[in-house]
From TrEMBL:
Its cofactor is FAD. Residues 41-222 form the FAD-binding PCMH-type domain. It comes from the Bacteria. This is FAD/FMN-containing dehydrogenase. Belongs to the FAD-binding oxidoreductase/transferase type 4 family. Keywords: FAD, Flavoprotein. Coiled coil: none annotated. The keyword Flavoprotein applies. GO terms for biological process: respiratory electron transport chain. One of its GO terms (molecular function) is catalytic activity.
Length: 479
């Protein structure tokens, strides 16, 4: 007998559609799908459904809809906001996209890739790269996060500064709506003004309006030259001044411009094997800058050397190292990409994935640091992030030796303290990770009035039974 709360007739019908390996009910098999990457949320599910294509997905969704069973779409399960974790009731099914994993075509004329939702971002990047092309979105979780997940969350990451968020890359999309109907928007058009932008509505909807099953992603020519440098700076203002210096010379050359505080860098150096700081001495803050171009010439090298040369002379940069090989480049990136993992190893942390206008970043970091240190003595304020986009991961790590649960019990106090400073500076409480279940409580005060009402109406129109990822993004109606 399957261990599930699904009615036997529904279970059998799902097995008919998806095959026995497409319907997991054994808790040992479903457990990993019910906990998030940070292990903040532990849910339960009636089953994990694993459709292999859009048609199977649509049939499974139609059946769940008919039986009033809530559905939680899940890709790589790397959400930072508990977006893909079911609640504790055990009523929902998780619909995992990992078996929808075909790369269909790479089109050199249109510079696009047609791909299933369950293809990991890394597999899609590698396929593009093998054909001399670039899929211009990069995040540290790209080995697990998949195309459906990155579109559903409108992921940002390291190359947003040059190419925009996932939304800007999605030319076409296919999705299964909450009632099982298939919305086919798989067009490859760069111009198509024919009514409401449903594709853009699905992007960033965090699984609450439907399950993305395929997409057409825009590609770029692969870079043929790259220059990468790690720089020590005195403070966030120094990082911004350096950004302005590069931007003044050639904004299109900047492929990544990442900020790391001294505290967050020290955690990486201390907790991640091989992540040694390749500079003379620790600094208050760092920038990882990458320039790239489809041209194979040495103009990028001159650009990097000119800007860094002046910055070193002026004292804006106090030390710098340039990657001299691909392996050195990867070592520099590893230091940046291990920030999330290092903070996970350092104990409990509270994440504030915020954005503010660029000019307000120094004031934001200074004010928020002071406020959080006053709130919790010994707290380790460890900001880093995509400073070129105005997006700072203003993360707060528990005091050394503190009780993680006691620290996390104050998460709303910390989040609200930071958010109020962000609000005053005209920013957003969630820049790239989304709302999920972690931040729904913030929606009424940040997106209240007509904005939240419009969102609720859209949700009610497409999902009147509230079956698709309930409890995510939108707070309960009375809130
Ligand atoms: P999941 O975690 O499985 O799901 C995320 C949300 O999307 C959930 O609400 C889920 O219900 C929904 N969803 C998933 N698949 C579908 C689908 N096919 N159709 C509809 N809804 C779906 N994010 C950034 O933006 N930038 C970063 O730099 C970044 N770095 C990260 C680094 C690490 C180490 C980790 C753990 C996370 C990071 N993230 C980052 C957050 C996360 O990886 C991204 O949000 C990613 O886009 C999620 O993809 P996923 O496939 O894992 O989605
Ligand atoms: C990153 O930029 C991710 O590395 C993770 O968005 C951020 O750990 C975080 O808060
Ligand atoms: Zn990020």
């Amino acid at each position: 007998m399957p261990q599930t709360s699904l009615p036997p007739s529904l279970h059998d019908a799902l097995v008919q559609i998806l095959g026995p390996s497409g319907v997991l009910t054994n808790p040992a098999d479903t457990e990993a799908f019910c906990v998030d990457w940070r292990a903040l949320y532990h849910g339960h599910c009636a089953a994990v459904l694993r459709p292999a294509n859009t048609e199977e997905c649509a049939k499974a969704v139609a059946l769940c809809h008919a039986h009033n069973v809530p559905m939680v779409p899940q890709g790589g399960n790397t959400s930072m906001v508990g977006g893909a974790t079911p609640d504790s009731s055990g009523r929902a099914v998780v619909i995992s996209t990992t078996r929808m994993n075909q790369i269909h075509t790479i089109d050199h004329a249109d510079l696009t890739m047609t791909v299933d939702a369950g293809v990991t971002l890394k597999a899609a990047q590698d396929a593009a790269s093998a054909q001399g092309l670039l899929l211009p979105l990069s995040i540290s979780s790209e080995g697990s996060a998949d195309i459906g997940g990155i579109l559903a969350t409108n992921a940002g990451g390291n190359n947003t500064v040059r190419y925009g968020n996932a939304r800007e890359l999605a030319l076409g999309l296919q999705a299964v709506l909450p009632d099982g109907n298939v919305l086919n928007l798989m067009r490859k058009l760069r111009k198509d003004n024919t009514g409401y932008a449903l594709r853009q509505l699905l992007v960033g909807s965090e699984g609450t309006l439907g399950i993305i099953t395929q997409a057409v992603i825009q590609l770029q020519p692969a870079p043929r030259s790259r220059e990468t440098a790690l720089c020590a700076v005195e403070n966030p203002q120094g990082a911004l001044n350096l950004f302005a210096a590069f931007r003044k010379q050639d904004p299109s050359a900047i492929h990544a411009f990442e900020f790391m505080s001294g505290t967050s860098m020290a955690l990486v150096n201390g907790l991640i094997d091989g992540a040694t700081l390749p500079l003379e001495a620790p600094a208050p803050a760092y920038v990882l800058v990458e320039l790239a171009s489809p041209r194979a010439d040495d103009s990028l090298r001159s650009l990097m050397e000119d800007v860094l040369g002046s910055a070193l002379e002026d004292g804006l940069v106090t030390d710098a190292v340039l990657a001299e090989s691909e392996s050195q480049r990867q070592s520099l990136w590893m230091i940046r990409e291990e920030h999330a993992e290092a903070q996970k190893r350092a104990g409990a942390s509270v994440k504030n994935d915020v954005s503010v206008p660029l000019a307000a970043i120094p004031e934001f970091i200074e004010a928020a640091t002071k406020a959080c240190e006053a709130l919790i003595p010994g707290i380790r304020v460890a900001p880093f992030g995509h400073i070129g986009d105005g997006n700072i991961h203003f993360n707060l790590v528990q005091p050394e030796g503190a009780d993680p649960a006691a620290f996390l019990a104050q998460d709303h106090a910390m989040m609200d303290t930071v958010a109020e400073i962000v609000r005053k500076l005209g920013g957003s409480f969630s820049a790239e990770h989304g709302v999920g279940q972690l931040k729904t409580y913030m929606m009424p005060s940040w997106r209240g009035g007509a904005e939240l009402q419009a969102m609720r109406r859209i949700k009610a129109a497409l999902d009147p039974q509230d079956l698709m990822n309930p409890g995510k993004v939108l707070p309960p109606a009375q809130a």
